[in-house]
Amino acid sequence: MGIQFDADHHKGREYVNMQQATYLQDKKLLPPNINRLSDLAYNLWFSWNHDALELFARIDPVQWKQSGHNPVRLLHEASESQLQQLSEDPDFLQSYQQVIAQFDDYLNGSTWFREKHADRDYVQIAYFSAEFGFHESLPIYSGGLGILAGDHAKSASDLGIPLVGVGLLYKKGYFTQKIDASGSQQSEHFQYDFTKLPIQPVLQDDHQLTISIDMPGRTITLQIWRVHVGRNIIYLLDADHEANQQADKDLTAQLYGGNQDTRIAQEIVLGIGGVKALRAIHYYPNVYHINEGHAAFLTLERLKELLQLGLPFHVAVETIRSATVFTTHTPVPAGHDTFSIQMVEHYLSPMLQELSRYKQDIIALGLDHHTGQFNMTYLAMNTAGMRNGVSKLHGQVSREMFKEFHGHLDANEVPISSITNGVHLDTWTAPQWKELLERFLPGTWKVEQANKHQWQQIEVIPDESIWKVHQHLKDALIRYARHNLMEQRRRNSESEERIEEVRQYLNPKALTIGFARRFATYKRANLIFNDLYRLKKIVNDPERPVQFIFAGKAHPADYPGQELIREIYRVSQMKEFLGKIVILENYDITMARFLVQGVDVWLNNPRRPLEASGTSGQKAAMNGVLNFSVLDGWWEEGYNGTNGWAIGSTGNADWATQEKENTESIYQTLQKEIIPLFYNQGDLPHQWISRMKRSFNHLVPFLTHIGWYRITQS
Ligand SMILES: *Cc1c(COP(=O)(O)O)cnc(C)c1O
Question: Is the pTM of this model over 0.85?
Answer without folding.
Answer: yes
